[in-house]
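Forwarding these from the shared drive since the link keeps breaking.
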Amino acid sequence: MARLLLAEDEEVLRMLVSDTLEDDGHEIDEASDGEEALNKIMAHDYDLIVLDYMMPVFTGLEVIEKVRAIPEKKHSRILMLSAKSQVSDQRAAMEAGADYFMAKPFSPIQLSEKIEEILK
């Protein structure tokens, strides 16, 4: 079992993803915006942080940049989820410090498989 943070502003998608990952046996913390995600990252250690690209308050890119600037958190593994699937968007996420990128839409099974691959 891994502990994951899921930061996604779309409530229905957040619930679907959270339920899928909990069914896989993971412990999930949720955040609905970038500020809440950053506060949870500061307060807890996660095996994987799953961030939406476009969120209120701080975007996923801004959260990544802030996390990478914190010495004790800079090695956190981060998966960026985004409806922005252009190569330039993926490049921006990776340059900001994302370790992995997954374009929306995706099926819960695809996300589950991706996360299991990352956590190996």
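-- next protein --
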Amino acid sequence: MKFLWQRAGAIAKKETRHVLRDPFTLALSIGLPVFMVFVFGFAIEFNVKDIHLAVHDADRSQASRRLIDTFGSSHYFVIDNIASPDLALRSIAGERDRAALIIPAGFEQDLLASRRARAQVLLDGSDNSTVGPILSYVASIQTIAGKRIANFDPPTPIDFKTRYLFNAELNSRWFIIPGLAVVVMAILSVLLTALTVAREWENGSMELLLSTPTQPLEIIVGKLAPYAVLGLTAVAFVYLISRTVFGVPFVGSHLVFLAGCILFLATYLAQGLLISVVTRKQQIAMQIAIMSGLLPAQLLSGFIFPIESMPTFFQYFTMILPARWFMTIARESYLKGSTFLDMAGPFLALAILCTIMIVLATSKFKKDLEP
């Protein structure tokens, strides 16, 4: 039978009315993007600051005070003076301080005698996400302290001039917020779609729907259209907040970014539909949607953890996740201004995954009442 847009439009109109009468769906689709952008945008900060540093100064000399002042004036460390090295260790173990600086007696005498003066820095290795940044701070402070205390400024045979491209200030928000569009779309499209058909089966209204002349493809298009609009509206919220509140630049093509959004949205809507068709239970559909949509989008898409740092198996495994490819498209569109040709690989991978998911979803959507 021929596909008729009038029938698909009637299904979409019915689904739109259902969405408008459902306060949970409306709150989730409108409130979640705003909530996530503000919470993640303000809360996630990769630049570690205000590190409490327990300091034990056994030398109490001008040189040791200058060393402590160099740490304090860096604005990365908050100095907590400690009476003994044992108390410094207890302070780290009690999580009152993240690191400790132990300056032994004779620190200044070693400097005056042109010997290598030593001070010990202890770090809390249980949180290894902060150890790397702290070590880089300590290395910089060591160089600055050498110049301030001992006037030691050795010439280097190679002079590196570093310039950060695409994010000159290394602003964490410029990296995080474009990725939020991926996470928000993944949550909304998979979760809401997974619930819609499952709810029809549980309420028994699917039997009435299937008794009409409407074709399965018309039902799919009609039911998914309102959620596609909700997903694009959520992306628009994320875009506006990122540009106006957080000042994230967008140097790419809006058309290329929109094409990536539509492709990613179609993939996750089809995935949500496939889940709902297979499970036919709202509770089960929600659990599978969270496991297959939300968690991979947050943990395995490169949103926070770099894919290049993952084990080789998971680097290949993430290739079957649509969120990985759209994460690349979103960030490169925002910060690098990449063209469609530059991102041909992610677009091709996303198109293949989208096709596979749509074929699976439509083939499973049988026009019968038997599971």
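The radius of gyration is 28 Å. The mean pLDDT is 85.

- D.
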